[in-house]
Amino acid sequence: MPEEFAISGPDNMLLNMGPQHPSTHGVIRFVLDTDGEVVTKATPVVGYLHRGIEKIATEMTYAQFMPITDRLDYVASMCGNLAWCEAVERMAGIEIPRRAQFLRVIATELNRISSHLVAVGSFCNDVGGVTPLVVALREREAINDLLEMLSGARLTYNYMRLGGVSRDMTDQFKRQTLEFLDHFPPALDEFNRLITGNKIFVERLANIAVVTPEDAKAYGLNGPNLRGSGIEFDLRRNEPYAVYPELDFKVCTGEGFRGQLGDAYDRYMVRINEMYESIKIVRQCLEMVPDGEIKGKVPRVLKVPAGERYTRTESARGEMGIYIVSNGGKTPYRVRVRTSSYSALSIFEKLSRGLMIADLVVVIGSFDIVAPEIDR
Amino acid sequence: MTPEEIYRHTLEKIPAETLGELAADAAQPWVTVAPDQLIEVLTVLRDDPALDFDCLDCLTATDFLDDGQIEMVYHLWSYTHEHLFVVKVRVGRDDPAVPSVSELWPAAEWYEREEYDMFGVRFTGHPNLTRLFLPDEWEGYPMRLDWKEKETALGIPTTRPDPLVPKKDGETGGAADA
Question: Cβ separation of A338 and B58 shorter than 8 Å?
């Protein structure tokens, strides 16, 4: 037993949670040092899904890496696609047709809704409410159908291409998406009536795992986890890319809805509110999308000029930062992917001290961790 | 502030020979500092109210095999002023050692463990410098460019015969015979 897992008192017990545990949201292990039901310390152990994606990236061309980005965060793989496209296109100076820009945003925002549905649904499931998960997955199914119509795949889409997207949207896609936009907000209201205001649910979440704004910044939390602590920062607004500057949407933050600012309930509410905003974005995009090309001119053998750049985009879980060092060749010299689940897990040890074991599940669920994004 | 303004502002606090030149023609300009002055420079960048880099957004390493050096890159971000600045440190590949910045930003704790895991960079002063992703018994640092995959890893072979290639000497087995 490594020294770092030594128990802190004679009456304490060491407990392994995971790597195969339904509420760890993937293959992660937590080593708990417990005193009865109280956790003295919880150490996350990661790496079970390490595939060396950063190494793989340096051995293939920029275009070939696109399907691999699906496997970073498989719940929201459009966001991984977009992050890689933005990173490479900004370095190589590729122009993207306007229609493709809108299609990208439509796909990403639909995917953001489906990802948040998985997040809140499985969160409810973790704390004991199975019905909300089924309701959330029912709605997600409709988005899966839409994205299948658009990209041909239901999970790992591989939809975007450097310089544009792979397929144009059909009239049927547009019609069914509009139908979905009409259908979804009432369905989400129903979901809220079902669980969001539920007394048991609120009491399980409120005042648990409070992250102060200072801690959130210092530990590098981002996305809904950062906004849950009341910091109004969204890369779509603050460092705009694609067509986001032209769109009207609100940045949702935690306000201490039912407990303290920055608790698990705030993070949950940020995700719920963001889904309404994403609906607004998709609707605007469908109105504004112009006709035209869907793929710009990109050389068959793309060589990115020598240099380096760190590009950040807002994925469903938060910031996805891609750092590329190029030496002017066909393959990148170094790629680094910085993901949000990774920093969320690094604050975990600090937050877990003194919690009950059952509340630990709330902490994991409230951060919406996806394991392959951590391990890469 | 733009990186040029941040650089000029930092020069008021830190002598030019410590801070080094700004690589101003890059898309995201950076400064390269010596390892033993890293903490001093980063502390000023974090604590100066006009700069206020309250977030270490990304910490990573790049192996420059031809130069015999490993480069650490610190992407600093300020939520207050919404500006980005890049600081770099270069160390020799043979025994790379860089002071840990986990005292300044706790986010660095995991980043540094990862870079230790993948590049073998020792972060002096780190509270718990152990491997993050790979097993503790792993040998070598796989993100280094001269790293070669061994025939076995932790007792498990890393290659296996291709089932589509028929075996020699008329042996049976594999999908090709099916």
Answer: yes
